[in-house]
Write a structure and sequence with these properties.
The chain is of the alpha/beta class. It is 27% helix and 33% strand. The strands form two sheets. The protein has a seven-stranded mixed beta sheet with strand order 7-6-5-8-9-11-10. Strands 1-2-3-4 form a four-stranded antiparallel beta sheet, covered by helices on one side.
């Protein structure tokens, strides 16, 4: 009996699978109470470690939360934890535009993951923009008080090769145009990136880099939040 029970604890359930535009395989699995999204078999995010995603929202919205009706862009929904944290700190008149490339990720949140973060997609402040976040940024001018990007594993593309365009000079110039005066550009990353910090400064951002644990006070690996202010 003990052996059978132990085997069940490690049983993996496939909940969803999709392909990114560049052909990467994205899967959602459940192991016991843990949900994991993988890119080509490598863990991209886990429901057990989301403190640093919440820190992205807290840091990135430090100014926007004091405005009466801020407009915030959230790039990538992931498992919904960063979106929940954004909604928790913003006022009732806020607008949060969520740009998500993969329709399957949205469906996974609605069907499997939403309960983990209190179903943030149901909040009336949320406006869903299906498609590449770079398109949403490129089509916007003087629109956002804060721009929070949790796309891929940071400025160095991991799951989606074209994500690198977001963090190059062209992408940063588009971000500046899309931000309102005193706006904040915030990026979550699994690691440090000195070259990206230099690029931010070169493109006119005042840079503040913060290191946080994946589980905040609960420990876990160190992650990086890049903050670029105008």
């Amino acid at each position: 009996m003990g052996g059978q029970h132990k085997a069940k604890l490690h049983e993996v359930e496939l909940l969803g699978q999709t392909l990114t535009p560049d052909g990467s395989d994205m899967t959602l699995i459940r192991r016991g109470n843990e949900y994991v999204i993988l890119a080509d078999g490598k863990a991209l995010m886990s429901s057990r470690m989301h403190g640093s995603e919440e820190a992205l929202a807290t840091f990135g919205c430090e100014r926007a939360r004091r405005l009466e009706a801020p407009c915030v862009l959230s790039g990538g929904i992931g498992m919904g934890f960063s979106l929940r944290a954004i909604l928790d700190v913003l006022p009732r008149e806020a607008t949060v535009v969520v740009a998500e490339l993969l329709p399957a990720i949205v469906e996974w949140n609605r069907e499997h993951l939403g309960k983990l973060a209190g179903h943030p997609l149901r909040d009336p402040r949320v406006k869903l923009a299906l498609g590449d976040v770079a398109v949403t940024i490129g089509e916007s001018e003087d629109r956002f008080d804060a721009m929070l990007l949790d796309v891929d594993n940071g400025p160095t593309a991991f799951a989606q090769a074209t994500n690198s365009a977001l963090y190059g000079d062209g992408g940063l110039a588009a971000a500046r145009r899309a931000l309102r005066p005193k706006g904040v550009y915030a990026v979550w990353s699994a690691w440090d990136d000195v070259k990206f910090e230099h690029r931010l400064r070169h493109n006119g951002f005042v840079v503040d880099t913060r290191r946080v644990r994946a589980r905040l006070k609960g420990g876990g690996p160190m992650h990086t939040i890049f903050l670029g202010g105008l």
